[in-house]
Amino acid sequence: MGIANRVALITGSASGMGKQTARRMAENGAAVVINDIDPAKVEATVAEFRQAGFKVTGAVADIANREAVEGLIGHAVAEFGGLDILVNNAGLEKAGPLRKLTDADWNLTVNVNLKGTFLCSQAAHGHMVGNKHGRIINIASRAWLGGAGQTPYASAKAGVVGMTRTLALELGRNGITTNCIAPGLIHTPMWEELPEKDRVAMAAKLPMGQVGDPDDIANAVMFLADDDAGFINGQVLYVCGGRSLFAG
Q: Any idea what the CATH number is for the domain that residue 119 is in?
């Protein structure tokens, strides 16, 4: 059945995996809400999508802030009359050896990746309950299995997996599925910001010998968002080229 005429909100969707996911959803007939914390990126992405003929709106919001999230969800509902699909994609990482990590590193990473997912899910699900239909798709990371130098990030993403399983149990009777995608190394702005020597070393560990593309994640989101995916609930789908087969 697809996602035609559904309303989808993708957090962190003005670039990278989120933007490609929003594009794929718009191409398949959904009305999409572009969200980012950077107003210029939101404006540029919305303009690009409108030029392509997509049904789109934009909303600047810090997903770690409850008031901002409530405004974001309210904007989506006001613009398009409801909310069917929530993709909790926005995230960031503060990495480093345990001894060098600061309270600020921990707080920022956990607030965006974990608290943001909680706030958005809490604010959004009520708009799905009445329709007995909804898709919450959380973007975690293969790193939740563990990764040296990734204490805040791995902890936050492990929390996202736990939250996914819990929401699946809590919301399933309302026709709302909650699933999780755990990407491996993907060509995103976050990846490109890494030093070249780190990128080479990390890519060398991949069983398939290559880094994934944003479209690999978008494909997985599309699968879980589909109306026909209603009996898939509480699952973690690894999109990592086999990297989840070992940690470290």
A: 3.40.50.720
Tokens 């997509």 appear where?
54
The band of 248, judged by pLDDT with boundaries at 50, 70 and 90, is low
Task: Reply yes or no on whether 153 is catalytic.
Answer: yes
Query: Is residue 16's pLDDT more than 80?
Result: yes
Q: For residue 243, is it within any domain?
A: no
Whether 37 has a pLDDT exceeding 80, the answer reads yes
Contact (CB, 8 A) for 168 and 234? yes
On whether residue 63 sits in a domain, the answer given is yes
Cβ-Cβ contacts under 8 Å for 199 (sequence gap 6 or more): 191
CA 72 → CA 86, 122, 172, 241, distances in Å? Answer: 12, 12, 24, 34
Position 66 in a domain: yes
φ, ψ (nearest 5 deg) of residue 139: -100, 105
DSSP state of 212: B
Predicted pLDDT at 134: 98
Q: Phi/psi at 8 (nearest 5 deg)?
A: -125, 135
Three-state secondary-structure class, residue 59: strand
Amino acid found at 185: L
CA distance 248 to 143: 8
Domain of residue 219, residue span: 7-186+213-235
153, 160, 178, 218: the catalytic one is: 153
Q: Is 50 left (phi over 0), alpha (psi -120 to 50) or beta?
A: alpha
| Domains in the chain, number | 1
Phi and psi at residue 84, to the nearest 5°:
-110, -35
Q: Give the bridge partners for 177, in sequence order.
A: 135
Q: What are phi and psi of 108, to 5 degrees?
A: -65, -45
Does 104 reside within a domain?
yes
